[in-house]
Amino acid sequence: MNLLLNLISLLGIAGLCFIAWLGSENKRVIPWNVIFWGIGLQMVIGLIVFVLGSQLVEGLSTLLNSILDASEAGARFLFGGPQSILVADPDFRAGPGPAGRWIARAVGTPFVAVPGDRIGPDNLNPGFAYVLAFRALPQVIFFAGLVSLLYRLNIIQPVVQIFAKIFQKTMGISGAESLSGAANIFVGIESAIAVKPYLLDMTRSELCAILASCFGSIASSVLALYAGFLRPTFPNITGHLVSASLMTIPACFVIAKILVPETDQPKTLGKVPEEPKADKASLPNPMDSLIGGALDGVKMAVGIAAALIAILGMVALVNLVFATLAGFSESDFFLLSWIGNLFQVITLQNILGALFLPLTFLTGVSLEWQELWQSSLLIGRRLLETNIPPYQALAQLNANGEISNRAMLIVSYVLCGFTHFASYGIFVGGLSSLIPSRRSEVASLGFTALWAGTLATLMTGCMAGFFDFGNPAIFGK
Q: Domain Concentrative nucleoside transporter C-terminal: where (predicted)?
């Protein structure tokens, strides 16, 4: 434990607010009330999670992990395993021949022999390593259906109202943006539908706050996707991702209100509107809601897969150009040799890592250069590659002992958000479709809101770093 790092994390909160102020549309208007209460709410949540309620987080993680395990039942039925109809004998063990060994090494991690030289059937795809499409994406479908069912049963709405009232009463923001922000704890851009009747008359500051909370938090449908990567080395990660999502909403309001201060009078100031209620006769039955949500989850899973294929392919293509330039280092011509030596270390990941290095330092992640750089690389990669590759890399680094528990905790909190270019079109396009007459204004706020969400997730990482005193119970170890 290094108390200097905790101090850096605390000062980092002020530093991130100052950075946001430097980009403010109106530097003379500083929302002190939102800043004070927003950071205060984060402190309260952090105190509960890290000091008073570590057992609460462990219990929440246990509950959610059980749900995550249940979510794999359908995938195992479809893609293989002891319960699959594709495997008649539940005790079947795939004994890999030469071709099987080659495929296992080519697709996943190198094959490691075990007694009997057999690969167990507990994997969804016997004989292979973890495959994202078969293990993680089905969980997105399951959770989308589950959330849809819970909404249909009116279980989530009262919780959303409670959080909305807390945000509105403490920070003094409008009821509509409070309601939308609270709904973001459970859903993504769908949260804007809860305040659709008020969107047309919202102020510029309110629209920015709604977009920022979309970028800064994660929808519960992808909670399983991120948690699945870190569970082997961070058993309590599921509860902490819920904590991060809760903690980031006040941070989004703080940063958004600094960047785009409120200078007008919101129409829902002082009250939290009720979510529009549909006619009971027109509501689908619970099973229809479950299936409908799952079908929406299919679209989301396909969208995630498509984005990963396109984005990671483009990143690899650009890095291939850099690698070709790096090959000039063997040239006898001085200028080409100099260019080649320069591009020996230039990749898109390294460029983004360098850009995010000062911000990563403010989280208090580490004072060791290598660990600080690794953390900055992971946080920077999110901007282009989405959260999935960085979370996978974080899990691998921790499993190999190449990154400390503190760094894993802070980076996992920072990565918990949709602050990447792939989500820009989803959120900006989704909100624009609800108020087409203000499309240009929403588009102009898009990158400001993305920046706000990025700073907000970093602020959440600062909070995690401030409250981390090396207690292994935090991690469930």
A: 240-465
The answer to the question of residue 284 being in a domain is yes
What is the rounded distance in angstroms from the CA atom of residue 111 to the CA atom of residue 409?
A: 30
**Tokens 């002190």 belong to which residue?**
32
Q: What is the pLDDT of residue 94?
A: 47
What pLDDT, on the 0 to 100 scale, is given for residue 87? 39
Give dist(CA 131, CA 76) in Å, integer: 13
pLDDT over 90 (residue 411): yes
**Does residue 13 have a pLDDT over 90?**
yes
Domain that holds residue 342: 1-91+131-476
Separation CA 405–CA 410 (nearest Å): 9
Strand partners, 269: 174
The most confident of the ranges 44-58, 63-77, 174-188 is 174-188
The tally of domains found in the chain comes to 1
Q: How many C-beta neighbours within 10 Å does residue 323 have? A: 14
